[in-house]
Amino acid sequence: MAQAIRAQKGEAIAHFQYEGRLLRDIPFGNGHINDTFLLTFEVRKMGRMKVILQRMNKHVFEDPILLMENIMGITTYLRDRITEEGGDPDRETLNVIPALDGKPYYKDSFGDYWRSYVFITDATSYEQVENPDQFYQSGVAFGNFQKLLANYPADTLYEVIKGFHDTRARLEVFKKAVEDDVMGRAAEVKEEIQFVLDREDVAGYLGECQERGELPLRVTHNDTKLNNIMIDNKTGKGICVIDLDTVMPGLAVNDFGDSIRFGASTATEDERDLSKVSCSMELFEAYTKGFIEGCAGKLTAREIELLPMGAKTMTYECGMRFLTDYLQGDVYFKIHREGHNLDRCRTQFKLVKDMEDKWEQMKEIVAKYYDN
Ligand code: ADP
Ligand code: GN1
Ligand code: MG
Fold this sequence. Notes:
alpha+beta; binds adenosine-5'-diphosphate; binds 2-acetamido-2-deoxy-1-O-phosphono-alpha-D-glucopyranose; binds magnesium ion
């Protein structure tokens, strides 16, 4: 397996518009979906240059060519907006390095698709928040990302993963996974299954609000976890939103919520000691403030009111997705140990429970921002 990807990687490296001598290539980051590598080149007298090379996950992304069209469209648009606002487009958005034939991807002889990005230097993607200000800054940056894309022609975007945050549809897939029980694991996770079933109303809530016209569809990121943003090492500001695979029309409250489920947790997503896992209200408030500021007055009062619901829904949905994958035999999210998806599911459900306990406090925090 490792050898197969090494050969594939070598083939891919030879087919991008790289210059110089390859000094080093190492696996990089903690993403659950793609295979990511950091390559370091020595470019004659110009010194070292780093790039990101990724093998796109073919089980998750049905059409990598259309996916890359989305990313080219979005990053080209963002470059213009960032330039207009006096920012640095080489650092503040992803920059695709083309393949030798000029395409934004390379298809290898195994049928896998690869893509490459300029590496964003002097910045870090974190697995856990280090202090409230850092989380506030990531809220500003994710909000600003949504603001920058507010006028992007949404109808040109290909729906990369159908029903990505359709929690009701995900609940149906979950029920089917319990019924099929292909790995014979359902008996062992009865409590977690019951946790999902006891909260079926959560799955439908935001979809119903949207159907009633209370929540607008916007161009959203849909995968706003902390490690999908680069934080500048010097200024501490969220410099660049990355992992643009799932940019699609969606709900602002879900972008907010997905950040909370990952970043406002007092532990990592796969912590086994559940006594360490809770939803920090200090972090919740810091992000709320940052996200609303970043969206620059674009969120409606109803959207702001429903931010806590976004947090609960995304956490419930993500826990359910981890559990579904555990039941299906770990076929979607990368795992690094036995029971990894089950551990991840348990942290999410612990967070949902904690949010339920802190519900009034969460509502009070967002209520402070209704008038903004
Ligand atoms: P996945 O879909 O698997 O999460 P990502 O695109 O998020 O893949 O990449 C995985 C990790 O690689 C990120 O969390 C980040 O740490 C790092 N990374 C990705 N692109 C860049 C980039 N252009 N510059 C620096 N680091 C990057
Ligand atoms: C995946 O790709 P990554 O690791 O940033 C997943 C998200 C989940 C997240 C859980 C395309 O995100 O939806 O919320 O794992 N991405 C996709 O950590 O399914
Ligand atoms: Mg990622």
